[in-house]
Amino acid sequence: DIQMTQSPSSLSASVGDRVTITCRASQSISTYLNWYQQKPGKAPKFLIYAASSLQSGVPSRFSGSGSGTDFTLTISSLQPEDFATYYCQQSYDTSYTFGQGTKLDIK
Amino acid sequence: QVQLQQWGAGLLKPSETVSLTCAVYGGSFSGYYWNWIRQPPGKGLEWIGEINHSGSTNYNPSLKSRVTISVDTSKKQFSLKLSSVTAADTAVYYCARVRQSVVRWFDPWGQGTLVTVSS
Prior knowledge:
The structure holds two protein chains of two kinds. Chain A is built from no helices and eleven strands. By secondary structure, chain A is mostly beta strands. In chain A, strands 2, 4, 5, 6, 9, 10 and 11 form a seven-stranded mixed β-sheet that branches. In chain A, strands 1-3-8-7 form a four-stranded antiparallel β-sheet, with no helix packed on it. In chain A, a hairpin with a 6-residue loop joins strand 9 and strand 10. The radius of gyration of chain B is 14 Å and the shape is globular. Chain A binds chain B through residues 1, 32, 34, 36, 42-44, 46, 49-50, 55, 87, 89, 91, 94-101, and chain B through 44-47, 50, 58, 60-62, 94, 96, 103-112.
């Protein structure tokens, strides 16, 4: 299996801050990397596919980058509704795997 | 707009079998893989397996010996059976869609079903 490792595991930030979450794959996955947002008690919401392409309807303050083994999710100016847990997921191998999650909370 | 609605028993005893079903409303049933994913309380997401409209399946190797995913195309439904459960199988189980393409992602998701395994 391809292991996905996110850092940090948790992050405290304020409204208006710029935050970056990192995801590392245990082997090269090209750009087969997706990002999701999950709020408590809810199913994950799909945000970004192919490392950097924004799903329709996702605010432009979200962006993704990277290829190979190292990827980032950036939120340019945090809004109150962005406080949630974020997961990366690889689709290079159809035995799909997720990162362990990064919990973003209010400072 | 495609919606997934899932249901199934929420409380099981050790050694019993989880049985969940997910119905697809709106959109095509073919051209996609239909997936099951789970999330233990307070933990991350684990992919369980998938099936397409033809019945072709892929399973997580760590669960493969206990998992069966089936499909009923006439009802636009797919189902999960996970046998010989233990407390470690306690989780919220989600169904989700993946397009059959080079670039794949999970969207949309069902609402989730909490399955608790307890004696």
